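subagent[fold] <- orchestrator: predict structure for attached chain, return tokens only, no commentary.
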Amino acid sequence: MTGSEPNAFYNEFDRGELEPREPDFRSVFQRGRDRLIHNAAFRRLQAKTQVFLSGEYDFYRTRLTHSIEVSQIAGSIARWLNASSGQLRPGFAIDTALVEACALAHDIGHPPFGHAGEATLHRLMKAWGGFEGNAQTLRLITEIIFTSGRSRRGMNPTRAFMDGVLKYKTLFREWDDPHKHFLYDDQQRYLEFVFAGRPFPAELAPGKARNAFRSLECQIMDWADDTAYSLNDLVDSANAGFLHLAAVERWAAGQTLDAHERTLVDELKAAITDHRLERMMNRKIGAFVEACRLVERETFMNDLSNRYRFAIAIDPAVVREQKLYARLAREVVFQSPQVCQLEHKGGFMLERIFTALKDNYLEAGSPRLALLSRDVEAEMQASGDAPDRRARIICDYMAGMTDGFASRIYKRLFDPDYGSIVDLV
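subagent[fold] -> orchestrator:
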């Protein structure tokens, strides 16, 4: 839909922004997508690890190319549902700009060095509320990403956009032993904004049940993400030499596969042998898109938004196929010694950098060297002496690093033969 065409699928509740702003020629959902694209946090994804370290080879996917692919798939799912669902029609349809924005934003909160970086930062931040990539994405769009001409930081997202990236809705303090899949405790106010202050019903208890309660756009984004990484990461893995015929055969020999799964593995082996894996996976993207259908559901938000009245249902056979590919990638590639060694190195560097910054800025009687950039130093000054706020500033700084920037900072701090006073980081 263009900015001038009404779309009755969404209402003023969905379009509500954290701070009301005068409209322009774009819809509020188009404006949110544009703000995200024209931002350094989004551009930094080009130098963050998807599977293999960014910059190692030109053709491997980075977080940026992965996010673009997820956005394309999510937009295709929305267009497919708009065209194929009897409940939707012109003027009452899923907004593709909103869905694409949610997909483009879904990884901006992830730190350098992939999942190892996320696990390391969470371990280091446990005393101060933990670290979670999805929570960090919400923090970026609400508090950190700067939109010029505004009096506050954050990109002033709409309620529907915030909700579309809000995969998890359980707070850190609500888990007995949180390890992932949570929001920061101080983000409760955004949950209240998204849900109009309504309490969650008893059946949506903190944890898996609450986290699984997602808006239509969030469900589309999540399936697009699952589609992209389970299909495209296998292609990258084959191009890198990790996924080859012998590796797949060894893996399959140790699995208990049903007849359908064995057929899929045989199909995969044939595609690798014939050097047509990428073509096969590209075709499967279309099949994964068309595996979606729109369904209606009853929720405590139905009276406020169609985003909860409707959901997607996915062909169970295609879901099993996606999970098979994801398991294969995880066990053959992601858990390989080569990848684990690089992840260990990335985590080691992040831990040493964090410890140096913590000792300098959090410890009583610390020397207080100016180890951070001027703007981050100014944030430290404004935070006072609150250790939790100072730790979160350090975490923000580190989560925003690219792989290469983190490596350079590590070398400047710990390598005696690296850098000089005139070097730029």
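orchestrator: received. Logging for downstream: Residues 270 and 276 are 8 Å apart (CA to CA). The two ends are 43 Å apart (CA to CA).
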